[in-house]
Amino acid sequence: MKRNIQSILGLAMIAGTLAVTSCSSDDGNGSNPEIPSVDGRWITVAGALMQETPGDGNGGTMVYAISKADAKNPNYSVNVYQNGFPVLSNRTARMQSSIDGSKLFNISYTGANGGTFMTYDVNGGANFVQSGATVNISQYAGTSPRWNKLFDGDKTGIAVNVTTPQIVTNGDQYAYTRGTATVLSLDLQNILISGYKQYEIPLTPEEEAIGHHIFRLDAPTLNSAGNKLIIGTWMRKTNPATGENESGFTRLGSKSVVVDYPSLENPTVITSTVDNGDTSGYRSFNSFVANDGAIYQATQRGTNGSHILRITPDNQYDNNYVFSLDLALGVQGTYVDAWRYAGNGIAYVAYTYTSANDQGFIARVNLNNRTAQKVEGIQYDADLDFGQYQGFVVDGNEVYIAVTPVGKDGNIYIINNETGEVTKGAKLINQPGNHYIGVF
User: CATH number of the domain at 13-399+419-439, please?
Assistant: First the structure.
């Protein structure tokens, strides 16, 4: 898993002027700050199959759709592994859904079909029907692209990738390490590539001279003005003397790439001095536009636990906004696996921390006053791991989360975003080595 192997990667929101969502269904349009409650929407449950190691989730992805009423019913049981539908993906699929839950968007991950984008009509149960054509973006963004749906009424997705960084020398002297970045826009309605740009993204000459470079891009987010994309980064460092990747290096401040939208041109790098963690996330959205128009972004793999950073509507880090989850939760070594903005400054964070031995927890976070509390009323377990978690559903004031320890049964939980009240919902039947990775 990502916390144990450094070479592997690590709650949607509606803005005041632009609505933004995570790997779930509730995005909106640029003028509606409210998160809609959709009558009759499906709740699609997703489970990841193990490949070699329990919890690795690399054996493929199964989905099954139930009603909201069934999702809230603790006497209702779902077994996605026996009764579900296999979405196209060699490993864990990266999925998102439409505003009303009626469509599932998928880009297959690695293998012969890696980079293939398709949509499914959600018809309940295991009835998922591929709608329209497919488009393979692997020739531009590789077979393992990272992507997000923008919050523009299910119109656009953005996929990003960086080729394996290569060392460049000046004669026999180390110069820098860089890969070629791709930023690609997908037309979700017509299932086609609507544009892409490729370029190298340099850091400062001083940073590059000592080997720092962008290893991976992920979690693109459209700003409140709708004219810039903020893209998270995972940083690495080359040892200029040996040409090898360094571990345990002195980290730079947290960085993001800003590009013009919709042109995808003019990449620039912004740096936070608040934290030194990466901003790429792992399998879910990692930054969201809030009601105040700012972007809030989680960090991972830093030396001081995860932080929530703030990016102003002017597309610059607000270094006066300091929100350490270690301090807010009273623990050490926090790590945000996935999170979801749910409106009115409130978010829900799936996290672990150092002394918890990778066990997962859920916290309710107030971005306005920078506080966080572990959510009680959820059945926690030592084998609960949110490392590959992708999907939260926010439906009006209700937040749906799938909670299953690896290889053990669990439940859907519904949290009232206004009161924080937790309700145990449908039972999720598991299998050895598998775990549920989200609701959509």
Answer: 2.120.10.80
